[in-house]
Amino acid sequence: MTQARILTGGCACGRLTFETKGEPKRVGLCHCLTCRKVSGAAFNAFVIFPVDQVTISGEMRGWSATPESERCFCPVCGSQVFDRDAGDEIEIKLGAFDGTNLFTPTYEAWTKRREDWLCTPDLKSFPENRE
């Protein structure tokens, strides 16, 4: 019997943490204006897990960019850690994991807002939301 892979991560100050079990549903990049603004970066790298494969510990705050999602962050250090949607998925920021080189994105969304200097030739690209 194979044991599910367990990964950990959290915010910069360590007060908001998470643990994932198993493999993600998908890994991607987003260039939408909201992701750019909230991260202060040219794009957002994220990993999508089924919500029942993620355990969250610690205090968090959130705000909603859309009625179906909530962007969650640590109220102490302000680190963005994950986004929750109204369904069965949770989007964890790739940089919030404790380890590196854990995942490789396979697609990118909102490429019509991608910086011209950013070249991602091996990714499936969507001009707006993923289909």
TrEMBL record:
GO molecular function, one term: carbon-sulfur lyase activity
Keyword annotations: Lyase, Metal-binding, Zinc
InterPro entries, per database record: CENP-V/GFA, Mss4-like_sf
Source species, domain of life: Bacteria
CENP-V/GFA domain boundaries: 7-108
Record-stated family: Belongs to the Gfa family.
This protein's name: GFA family protein
Organism: Microvirga aerilata
Organism phylogeny: Bacteria, Pseudomonadati, Pseudomonadota, Alphaproteobacteria, Hyphomicrobiales
